[in-house]
Amino acid sequence: MRVVSRAETCIGLFLLAALGTIAVAMLAMQSRYDPALFRALEVKGDALSAQEPSASAGSSQALAALAPEGLSPLGSEEVFGPDTLSDKIDGKAELYLSAGFIRLATQRFSRTSDPKVWLELFVYDMSDSKNAFSVYSLQKRKDAHKADVGTFAYSTGNALFFLTGSRYIEIVSAETGLENEMSALANKLVRATPPRENETMEFALFPSEFLDDGTISLHMSDVFGFNRLNNIYTAQYNIESEQVTAFISRRESPEEAATLASEYSQFLLENGGSELGEIPGLPGSRLFQVFDTYEAVLSAGPFLAGTHEVEKRSAAEEVATRIYRKLQEGVNEKSN
Amino acid sequence: MKKAIDKIPMESGINRRDFLIRAAKAGAGLAAAGAIGYFLHDPNGPAPATATEKSPLALPDFSVPEAGRKIAIITGADRVKSVNTGIQALGGIETFIKKGDRVLVKVNAAFASPPALCATTHPELISEVVRLCLKAGAASVAVTDNPINNPESCFALSGIGEATQSSGAALVLPRDTLFTNMTIPGTSFLKNWPILSAPFKGITKLIGIAPIKDHHRSGASMSMKNWYGLVGGRRNIFHQDIHTFIRDLAIMVKPTMVILDGTLTMITNGPTGGSLSDLKKTETMILSTDQVAADAAGAVLLGKTSGDLPFLAKAEQAGAGTLDFESLNPIRTTAA
Questions:
Q1: Testing the interface with A: which of B276, B279, B311 to mutate, by most A Cβ within 10 A?
Q2: Which of A54, A77, B87, B266 could cysteine-pair with B213, CB 3.0–4.6 Å?
């Protein structure tokens, strides 16, 4: 057997001692773990340096530079990431985090002639336009007025909400009367972050007749209480004096759409539903009665669709039929 | 064959016997390391500190037994008149505040948001409550909160800072040195956790004043949720079980009185809101010595039931009050 030298023995003992010290230190540290002391780091960076490169949205551009005539930056820009979003918007953070949120940048501006009059700009980068539409649609105010800025926009008494590319924007003023300043700021922001070309979304597949297009929303997860139901567009129809909620979702394949339709049907049955059979003229569709309301579930090509919590059976069947025909037209056109 | 292998000369000078001995030792070493690792492995992670660990005492009980359990529901659009009428209905300010009392007012200053959006306690209401306390002979009144956003901005832009100081109260901004790690017996989460405790030193009465708001995570933000602002550290982790945490807050704080402002109620897009259209004129103010009863009454303004807000039943089960506020025979009157 080879004789181990003294130097090798010393090095070996040193390494063993070092490993032992590390083990003891780890044990000591973890026994003193205090979750209250661990706090997410703030995201540093520029608000407009996100994923959509544009000529004027480079890393040197800050929100303060967007101040239109008559407004001056009030304080400095703040940036929040997924770990710190709740530091700004508290419990509403979950809505954004479940929809692909990347970062929020905010900047306050005050009226140059009267610094007590101020507004705040919120720029949410939602990674893509579909995610941005989701948070926009789910928060849309009922008494909104259509606004002419970005791709989708509305205003209320004191605020302006709109989309531009993958960004959801809020401009909230402390009081009414700042419409012109909000509009000027919005236009500067849109020019700095132009939307991508040819952005289309599935909600164009909702049949337009009887549709209240202001009610179209995109729900990202746990839709209708079913955890497998995600990426669902909903819209309201006013038909037969009834308000009918319809839904459409494009899946990866016709097989996935059919499977999800089956799973959702099973979910309805397990939660108090009883099956009433197929809707006439809609092969593969299923109609359910859940307590006092009706649910239609169907698939057409890669689309899952249906109606939700409709009080009148005939209204549920009518809307489901209209949606099925529209989806089937699209499927047929594609196969031809 | 065996002998032939034994005789194979090895470059290191190790024969088969030495090799087997060394391999066995190495194997034993690895097995021992694995066994130690398995023995030390804690699949549950570090447990929070237990109530028996050394921890400062819980917050004092600020309730006034002789005032009894009461609730007043006041109708009116003027906050100052409503709070005066409400306090009078509960027996007058002298029932709660005695000469020489040192009063702490816990407001909701969570956001750097203008008063018009009702995301924070309205400054008019704070001024009036401070005035009433001082008039009743309070030796001092202090106003505090640990906001979600930057404290200086929150107190300045919400108008709370100016209202506090102009009405003669002291404004206590949260600093690291004002927090103490505390363990609150009977709670699930408040174990060795930083609490804004310094403002309570010498305090004899505690009044909570909060707006009634929709809340994306908990369903509602009212008087019990308002105590969230006494918690420090990485408190957003409690959003994962928000209803149990609100129960914990109700266990932690036993106030003299809570005041819920539903003059304008944020019925959508809470807790931040952002649009005047998120607000509904409910013209109601709720004052109670029972925080659970107050929140149960506030839920009505949000169009919600106790079933929608599980924290109400949890708080009741914990003995923090009753969600059957009608059992307290509410004093219903119009603000004079």
A1: B276
A2: B266
Q: Which residues of B301-328 are buried (b: 16+ CB within 10 A; e: fewer)?
A: bbebebeebbbbbbbbebebbbbebeeb
* Edge-to-edge strand ranges of the sheet holding A293-300: A211-219, A232-239, A242-250, A303-310, A293-300, A286-290, A273-277
At residue A110, the 3 state secondary structure works out as: strand
User: Is the torsion defined by CA of A161, B117, B221, B159 positive or negative?
Assistant: positive
Least confident segment among A138-147, A305-314, B274-283: A138-147
Separation of alpha carbons B100 and A59, rounded Å: 58
In contact, B74 and B170? CB cutoff 8 Å: no
Chain segment B214-223, per-residue pLDDT in tens: 999 999 999 9
Question: In A, which residues are within 8 Å of B116 by CB distance?
Answer: 158, 174-175
Other beta carbons less than 10 A from residue B290's beta carbon: 26
Q: Please list the residues that pair with A110 across neighbouring strands.
A: A72, A118
Span B190-210, mean pLDDT? 96
B59 min Cα distance to partner chain A (Å):
19
Q: Do B149 and A88 touch (CB under 8 A)?
A: yes
* Structural contact between residues B290 and B321, judged by C-beta atoms closer than 8 angstroms: yes
- pLDDT at A72 > cutoff 90: yes
Residue A33 confidence class, pLDDT cut points 50, 70, 90: low
Give how far the C-alpha of residue B183 lies from the chain's centroid of Cα atoms, to the nearest Å: 14
Give the phi and the psi of residue A326 in degrees, each rounded to 5: -65, -45
CA B242/CA B229 separation, integer angstroms: 14
- The tokens for A139 are 């928060």
Q: What residue of A is the nearest CA neighbor of B239?
A: A91
E-strand ranges in chain B read 71-75, 102-107, 140-144, 170-172, 179-182, 193-196, 205-215, 219-221, 257-266, 279-288, 331-334
pLDDT at A200 over 80: no
Cβ contact, residue pair A90, B232, below 8 Å = no
- Mean pLDDT (chain A) is 86
Token pair recorded at residue B55: 């921890």
**DSSP assignment letter at B12:** T
Q: How many CA atoms lie within 13 A of B52 on its CB side?
A: 0
Length of chain B: 336
Q: Using a CB–CB cutoff of 8 Å, tell me whether A221 touches chain B.
A: no
- The answer to whether A90 contacts chain B (CB < 8 Å) is yes
- If 0-12 CB within 10 Å is exposed, 13-18 middle and 19+ buried, where does residue B299 land? buried
Residue A100: which of A51, A149, A59 has the closest Cα?
A: A51
What letter represents residue A98's amino acid?
S
For chain A, counts of helices (H) and of strands (E): 7, 14
* Tokens 């816990």 -> residue: B106
Tokens describing residue A187? 């236009």
> Nearest 5°: phi and psi at A221?
-155, 160
Q: Which residues contact B8 (CB under 8 A, 6 or more apart)?
A: none
Phi then psi dihedrals of residue B187, to 5 deg: -100, 160
Q: For residue B11, what pLDDT is reported?
A: 53
Residue B324: band (very low, low, confident or very high) from pLDDT cuts 50, 70, 90:
very high
Provide the number of CB pairs (under 8 Å) joining chain A to chain B: 105
Sort strands B219-221 and B205-215 into parallel, antiparallel or unpaired. Answer: antiparallel
In sequence order, which residues have a C-beta less than 8 Å from that of residue B72 and are 6 or more positions away? B85, B86, B89, B90, B286, B287, B288, B330, B331, B332, B333
Maximal CA-CA distance, chain A: 97
d(CA A153, CA A129): 13
- Residue A270, CA distances (Å) to A137, A223, A303, A306 in order: 30, 16, 23, 18
